[in-house]
Specification:
By secondary structure, the chain is α/β, with parallel strands linked by helices. The protein has two domains: about 280 residues, TIM Barrel, CATH 3.20.20; about 70 residues, no CATH class. The chain is about 35% helix and about 10% strand. β13 and β14 form a beta hairpin. α4 crosses α5. The longest helix is centred in the C-terminal third of the chain and has 20 residues.
């Protein structure tokens, strides 16, 4: 990509404004005349969804959810999961994976607790660092979410989380702070909710004073999908760089705000510059991949198993699964099974019964029929 400052000088205001909102669900807006590519994001955190909407698209591997990974207390394992997820994201042609989720499990009624790590901010922070490290070492950017205090299911899109400063910093902000300072995630995702009466997507104290000025974050802040952004000028001025998945509050509304002087072109330039740097990070580390999406595994298997234990089922044909002889696309944690069938559900049951006391991780996915799991 050409020099970023030179690109900024060549771009029109209309082109700059267009870049500050997404398009086609998962993409940023390209500027083809200047060679600025469209970046693709893919939903995480326990897989790489790819494109095709929320219910369609090619098959993808399903990894253990965040709460299951956290139950291992194993940061090395989580880092290897991050590496495997990066490879999955590349198969979907994505440069940014929307994860990890580091919100706090403050209530068992939280509808998305499963994708968060823990109720403990320290454990969440350590595993977030491991996850992001594995992901970004492979050239795929992380999007740490949802910033911040998006831990309530009731009126998730609009509720105001009323939180004292000390509690917010010691519990809810800590995983984000540690991640930003230790491993520099490429992006942060702003939450749906309000914090102390101000929308998280236009909260200057959170997005600029703390995140950028205090912690030194220099990446892109994007919105959560559809309902996170609640204003035009206020969100841009507060430091929200990118509205996803499309221009509901930006586009022509932002152009009008610039013309009225509510948002300066210098402020727009700041956000565009961050997006260009993100694009440069993706393309410079193998990230820009406009290739056709591929399904998970060589033959899009309908069964995948991950066991981290001293006792292993047998692959069809008698090969020892635990020794990695059946590994395929990822060899995730040296025990991945890709395109092979575990020889019967009873083999897994025996492994569980005999090795439960030392079992760390179990992930089984597939189709159950009258004759068993396939």
């Amino acid at each position: 990509m050409p020099d970023i400052e030179e690109l900024l000088r060549q771009m029109t205001v209309q082109e700059k404004v267009a870049m500050l909102a997404g398009t086609d669900d998962w993409y940023t807006v390209p500027v083809e005349r200047l060679g600025i590519p469209s970046l693709k994001m893919s939903d995480g955190p326990n897989g790489a969804r790819g494109a095709g909407g929320f219910t369609a698209g090619v098959k993808a591997a399903c990894f253990p959810a965040g709460i299951s990974l956290a139950s291992t207390w194993n940061s090395d394992l989580v880092a290897r999961v991050g590496q495997a997820l990066a490879r999955e994201a590349k198969m979907k042609g994505a440069q940014v994976l929307l994860g990890p989720t580091v919100n706090i499990q403050r209530s068992p009624l939280g509808g998305r607790n499963f994708e968060c790590f823990s109720e403990d901010p320290y454990l969440s922070a350590r595993l977030a660092v491991a996850y992001i490290t594995g992901l970004q070492e492979e050239g795929v950017g992380a999007s740490v979410k949802h910033y911040v205090c998006n831990d309530e299911e009731f009126e998730r899109f609009s509720i105001s989380s009323e939180i004292r400063e000390r509690v917010m910093r010691e519990i809810y902000l800590l995983p984000f702070q540690v991640a930003v300072r230790e491993v520099k995630p490429w992006t942060i995702m702003a939450a749906y909710n309000l914090v102390n009466g101000i929308a998280a997507s236009e909260h200057a104290y959170l997005l600029t004073d703390i995140l950028r000025d205090e912690w030194g974050f220099d990446g892109v802040v994007m919105s959560d999908w559809f309902f996170s952004v609640k204003s035009t000028a206020a969100s841009v001025n507060a430091g929200l760089d990118l509205e996803m998945p499309s221009a509901q509050w930006r586009g022509q509304k932002l152009l009008d705000a610039v013309e009225r002087g509510e948002v300066t072109e210098a402020t727009v330039n700041t956000s565009v510059r961050r997006l260009l740097q993100l694009s440069d990070s993706g393309s410079g580390r193998g990230g820009y991949r406009p290739a056709q999406e591929r399904a998970a595994g060589p033959a899009a298997p309908t069964h995948t198993a991950l066991l981290d234990s001293g006792h292993w089922p047998q692959c069809a044909g008698g090969a020892d699964y635990g020794r990695g002889q059946c590994s395929g696309e990822h060899a995730l944690c040296d025990y991945a099974l890709r395109g092979h069938r575990v020889e019967g559900w009873r083999s897994c049951q025996r492994a569980l019964r005999t090795g439960l006391y030392q079992l760390q991780v179990v992930a089984l996915a597939g189709k159950r029929t009258n004759s068993g799991w396939h």
